[in-house]
Amino acid sequence: MAFNFMVAFLSTTLMLSVFSPGNALSLNYYEKTCPDAELIIANTVKKEFASDKTVPAAILRMHFHDCFIRGCDASVLLNSKGNTKAEKDGPPNVSLHAFYVIDNAKKAVEASCPGVVSCADILALAARDAIYLSGGPSWDVPKGRKDGRTSKASETIQLPAPTFNISQLQQSFSQRGLSMEDLVALSGGHTLGFSHCSSFKNRIHNFNATHDVDPSMHPSFAASLKSICPVKTNAKNAGTTMDPSSTTFDNTYYKLILKKKSLFSSDQALLDTPKTKDLVTKFASSKEAFSKAFVNSMIKMSSINGGQEVRKDCREVN
Ligand code: HEM
Ligand SMILES: *[C@@H]1O[C@H](CO)[C@@H](O)[C@H](O)[C@H]1NC(C)=O
Ligand SMILES: *[C@@H]1O[C@H](CO)[C@@H](O)[C@H](O)[C@H]1NC(C)=O
Ligand SMILES: *[C@@H]1O[C@H](CO)[C@@H](O)[C@H](O)[C@H]1NC(C)=O
User: Fold this and answer.
1) What residue ranges define each of the domains in the chain, with the CATH number in brackets?
2) Rounded CA gap, 63 and 220, in Å?
3) How far apart are the C-alpha atoms of 224 and 242, rounded to whole Å?
4) I need a labelling partner for 73 at 20 to 30 A (CA). Which of 233, 260, 281, 293 fits?
5) Which atom of ligand 3 is nearest to the CA of 168?
């Protein structure tokens, strides 16, 4: 008994020390070393948003991808080097864009306090700013993340796929310490942005042996998607906005799920357990409830531990 306890204790301690460097995050992390960091980052995101309204969606998705692979350690920002392909060159990268926003924020922060603010923190803060600029809530972001030294295209298969069912989604989130409530709230990130046909075409053509179209999709919605995404097309950039108000943070996403008009199986699947269905219904009827849950879950997701250093250039390890 005592022995088993010791073994369990030791292996847990070992796992913690090996797998989570345990960078303690805090709200006042840069108070003395870079007091203007947040302002500088916010100004950069605001400036880039003024000329490109798709910047918030890009930054939010980038942050999500970062946190789901090796923790929030800016691994998504590293460039491929030699024959090692980085995450950003892995298969689900079709929508990753606007890396220049983080580069510009980093440059501006470095000019003020060189070598102090991690790229992972810049990305987490920029994601918060992106939500606020889109009409969503704002919140205090705990800081002190470190940047990682590894990024592998092959690891992008660890991201949840749009074809996932509710149990696969639950597993993907729980492996990262995130709950079903986090899953429903964070999926609301799909209130922003754009999706390519490749991400949902399985639902509208040849769904399975008995149904051409996924029966969990509204027929009129499927018909409109079919016209945007015909079976055969050379249009690589074809697709549609995630919701009609795709540059505004609102709760339309949840209303569409209730109407069977969400794009991905992973969105529609949120109706498949009583608990997640209740949350979808709650968020569809209250933007405030959604915003509150989203903030809570963003803080949780963006605290998944990663890296070791403060990179000088977000695209390269030191
Ligand atoms: C629950 C599992 C999730 C799956 C399966 C998923 C899947 C996808 C897919 C397939 C796309 C479209 C890619 C394309 O075709 O261009 C997309 C876009 C997007 N996702 Fe998710 N996602 C998930 C969770 C999240 C989370 C947690 C967030 C953030 C909180 C998020 C934010 C976004 C945003 C903002 C876009 C639009 C990107 C843009 O327009 O640049 N997603 N997602
Ligand atoms: C995505 O990956 C492909 C190769 O796998 C690469 O050519 C392309 O530049 C990448 N896209 C982005 C936005 O990094
Ligand atoms: C979800 O998909 C997995 C893998 O295909 C399958 O084993 C599982 O039974 C499915 N679960 C549900 C609830 O459909
Ligand atoms: C096709 O999908 C529908 C809905 O998920 C299901 O009811 C049906 O049994 C599936 N058909 C086959 C042949 O798998």
Assistant:
1) 12-160 (1.10.520.10), 166-298 (1.10.420.10)
2) 33
3) 14
4) 293
5) 1
User: What value, to the nearest 5°, has the Cα angle with vertex 161 and ends 160 and 165?
Assistant: 90
**Any residues with CB less than 8 A from the CB of 88 and at least 6 apart, and which?**
76, 77, 78, 79, 80, 96, 99, 151
Give tens-digit pLDDT for 204-257.
999 999 999 999 999 999 999 999 999 987 788 899 999 999 999 999 999 999
Q: Please tell me the number of Cα atoms within 13 Å of 212 on its side-chain side.
A: 6
- The contacts of residue 144 (CB under 8 Å, 6+ apart) are 23, 24, 25, 26, 29, 121
Dist. CA 166 → ligand 3 center (Å) = 8
In ligand 3, which atom is closest to the CA atom of 166? 13
Tell me the CA–centroid distance for residue 210 and ligand 4, in Å: 6
Mean pLDDT of all residues in 9-30: 61
**If DSSP states are collapsed to H, E and C, what string results for 249-272?**
CCCHHHHHHHCCCCCCHHHHHHHC
| Non-local CB neighbours of 53 within 8 Å, separated by 6+ positions | 247
- Is 272 annotated among the ligand-binding residues? no
In this prediction the pTM is: 0.92
Residue nearest to atom 1 of ligand 3 (CA): 165
Residues 98-151 have pLDDT tens digits of 999 999 999 999 999 999 999 999 999 999 999 999 999 999 999 999 999 999
